[in-house]
Amino acid sequence: MNRELKRVSIVALLMFAALFVSTTIIQYFSAESLAADPRNSRTLYASYSVERGPILVDGTPVALSQPSDDDYKFLRVYPNGPLYAAVTGYIPVNGEATGLESSLNDYLSGQASSQFFDKINRLISGQDPMGASVDIAIDPVAQQAAWDALGDYQGAVVVTEPATGRILAMVTKPTFDPNTLVSHNTEEVQVTYEGLLADPGKPLFNRATGGDMNPPGSVFKLVVTAAALESGRYTPESTFPNPGTLTLPGTDSVVINSGGGTCGDGSTVTLATALRLSCNIPFAELGMELGDDAIREQAEKFGFNHEFEIPTATEPSVYPRGLDEPQTALSAFGQYTVRATPLQMAVVSAAIANGGIVMNPNLVDGITAPDFAPLQEFEPSEFGRAISEDTARTMTEMMTNGVEDGAASNARIDGVSVAGKTGTAENGEDDPYTLWFTGFAPADNPQYAITVLVEDGGGLGQEGYGNLIAAPIAKQVLEAVLNK
Amino acid sequence: MSDTDATGRISTSSPVTPPAPTATPPDGMRRIRMPQRLRNLEFWLLLMACFINASAIVLVQLGALGRIDTQLVLLGAGLSVLVFGLHIVMRFVARDADPFLLPIATVLNGLGIAQIYRIDIAFGDSGWESASVRQIAWSAIAIIAAIGTMLLIRNHRVLFRYTYLSGLIAIVLLLLPLVPGLGQEINGARVWISFGSFATFQPGEIAKIALAVFFAGYLVRNRDSLSMVGTKFLGMRFPRARDLGPLLIVWALSMAVIVFQRDLGTALLYFGLFLVMLYVATSRLSWVVLGLSLFLAGALIASQTLDYVHARFENWLVPFSDARYDADPGGSYQLVQGLFGLANGGLIGTGWGRGSPDITPVPQSDYIIASLGEELGLAGLFAIFALYVLLVARGFRIGFAGQDDFGKLLGVGLAFVVALQVFIVVGGVTRVIPLTGLTTPFLAAGGSSLIANWIIVALLLRLSDTVRNHPRLVIDG
Fold this sequence. Notes:
A: alpha+beta, 6-stranded mixed β-sheet, 17 helices, B: 477 residues, 3-stranded antiparallel β-sheet, globular, membrane (chain B)
């Protein structure tokens, strides 16, 4: 009987060995990945038990933690909630964080590996743990101006600094008050959240970096123009046939210029004029000559099909693959399935303003530990060169003409030369247009690159157009920041 | 492998079982023996165990409340009095019993109470509503039951006489929850009986003791016909059809438990217990192979045909899929939250009162091991597992050193049932096997489980006393 007993005790031992191994795997080897699971509310609780660091704009907090008397110990407060909602995001007690609250959670909650020694230090010296503070690049003047200028339109405004990629303003509307989503009354928060989800205006979308992505329409002509000039086969004076309508090869689809008719007078039209007046037919022709591969290559050099992290993750703008000729023609003036975010278009303008070099867009200037030691500085970083300096100079000139004497005339500012391009993109046959403006100022010494997106036709259905609604918004914001 | 055991003391080939010692040796004999060396060791270990338990409650209060509340400490002290009562009883009726069993059971019981108390604080329960106060009351009843067992059963051979009665009791206990009006369904499993609003009771826990007694008795009586006769097939000796009877009956019983009481864990426990005892008694591996294949086949069919079994398997295999996580009822939410809790504990735990074990459903009963793992860490769990290993090892020791086959078999059965239960419930929580609802012995909140396990301890103590009592065998304490 004892031989069997010995075997059974080995089985029992193996059963316990399995438990030793399984708990070790869970508590040691996969502890980190389990903690990173977004459904893990314990991680959230842990991040609440420390005083979360503030998010600062020019030294003024736009998100901070205040002591509260309940289990969570601290309440997150957003002093100017709706204005900065697109930037800060929010960190609810019972859900997933968004915005910088999510992407910089490690630092804000004091859990980042670079804060390890600070944490130990505080533990030994008996101080309460505290998160790092985050200085962001947002310029309060630009942010407020963008907020005011966008008014009640559904859309977004992004302002960046061309030389560095710093994001100076990021506004999206309609928006929400993050304070209502971080209350410790989780039932109330749930009701608010569901209300926001059900709102047809989709206030939870950050339209500056994602949301229901829009076709860029004519602002995409900047990318196609860049591709043409970079190919070396075209100059601004290159000419294209100038018919009143263009039937796409192999289809019944007819392309017309906005407003109908030809693009200016004459049987041919130059690239410069086509861009200045924003005509569709010459660009359809140019697009077919370039081919979709050349356009995609240029678009990707500007950052299309790439997910910028600012450091919050953004939606990549899309230039699709495998287009046939008529599809390529449509894509050349930003239609078909081309999609862009205002952030992406701001990157395009900023690259042109910056002599062709694309800077990675970025919201954060620096992160400072509670003891004021800098934890991380955000140096401007290059994404790459999109176009040559010559091309950049040429395009600046063409865009300046577009504002001074072209389709983007409503962005004109007295005493300052503005470079810009408008867009009026079609969505569905009867759907309201999407209105765009992208550009920078001053054209000769670019300080600010701006992109304005207005969805839903600015409330005018198919009557609104970029120069009517989007360009004046850009003008108002640029005036505010230039007059600082 | 030789026929001698690990220590080489006993040869299994000796066909004659030595007669069991009489219930109590004459008084004259007791006096000449050594002073109560084992009991003195037990006394000090017990003192340590009670100190650990009191510290645990104080630590919970400091961690979760930030102050010390003497009420619960006093209640805990009452329990200490009871375990010392058991200790004193043993000085009279089981002076040579194993000195480790009682302290181990005491520490496990105390750690369980501390963790349950910590969850009560998180839930804001206090007084008679709180699980910890009820657990202390149940512990008192359980220890008294153990003392009663000690006093009532002076010689385990008595149980041999009641082999078939035990079998009958086991089946009646198992069927009780199915009686209309008496049975109650909790969390989808119909394994409870209720006495009005006063208390619910899980008779299946007690049934496992009755089953162990029945198996031991039955197998000792019939081992020869079971092990000697049979047809050889594929190099293994398979039993005759008529000897298959008991195997098939127990198998059918287990399957009935799965189907009618929706309780996979209990079925697995009973069947595992039966197979191990059968193997030890008959040394026929073919039985085990046959039994395991039968059970696996049954479980496989159940997983295909019974929705709740199928869900358990899915939860086990892909707990993190959104579909399983969000499924309600029967999703993997509990399992995943338990894993999050364990991960939150890490190597050294958050400390009592500093974790969030209350996020996980039923953190004080089925999931107490996840709660302990979160707040005491991997280090704490290893210590708890080590205590179980020690407890089980002491039980197996009785099997090795026992004088009679019935006692050996019963000792192994009882020790193995504790090991298997720990494996099934902890293995379920940590994804070694599909999750089934069982209580963690001594730790989890629940009266029936406590009573059953304390009676098991009493029986093991009684068995170990018989082993040591035998003059031929002196085992170092």
